[in-house]
Amino acid sequence: MDADACALLRRLLTERPVAALATLHRGEPAISMVPFVVSPAETQLLIHVSALATHTRDMLDHPRVSVLLTDEISAAISPQALPRVSLVADAVPLERDSPAYLTARLRYLARFPDALQTFGLADFSLFAVRLQSARLVAGFGRAHSLAGEPLQALLRDIGA
């Protein structure tokens, strides 16, 4: 992946506030929208979700998920050339009394301070969405795949 593609992937991960989250719901694909924050040291995304949402039960039943981030739509870019990244990940709930939860909570609230009220609700949970692979489409004929240590290194670099 060249420097421009890496910069685009970093920008999508750090500037886009919401993602499409794909889960397996009763044997069928389901997609929902979730705000997220990158946790670079742990090479994961963090999402804060309600037990009332079907995707929360889905992640508990089937932790493998997919996440889609797209660039902003503009008249200057054809929809087929819209920069985007599809991520394959494993979603893991964070235990409320763990140090990982406390760190994740601080990181999430730094990006979404209005979420403070939902952290007081018993039905909300933090999930670590641990990235396994990425497929970046940077435009027509510009697609890149990244997995394993190269993906982990790019994520760690976001926090540097």
TrEMBL record:
Under the heading SUPFAM superfamilies, the entry gives:
FMN-binding split barrel
Q: Which InterPro entries match?
A: HutZ (IPR014419), Pyridox_Oxase_N (IPR011576), Split_barrel_FMN-bd (IPR012349)
Can you name the source organism?
Ramlibacter tataouinensis
Q: Which domain of life is it from?
A: Bacteria
Protein name per UniProt: Pyridoxamine 5'-phosphate oxidase N-terminal domain-containing protein
Tell me the Pfam families matching this sequence.
PNPOx_N (PF01243)
- Where is the Pyridoxamine 5'-phosphate oxidase N-terminal domain positioned along the sequence? 9-137
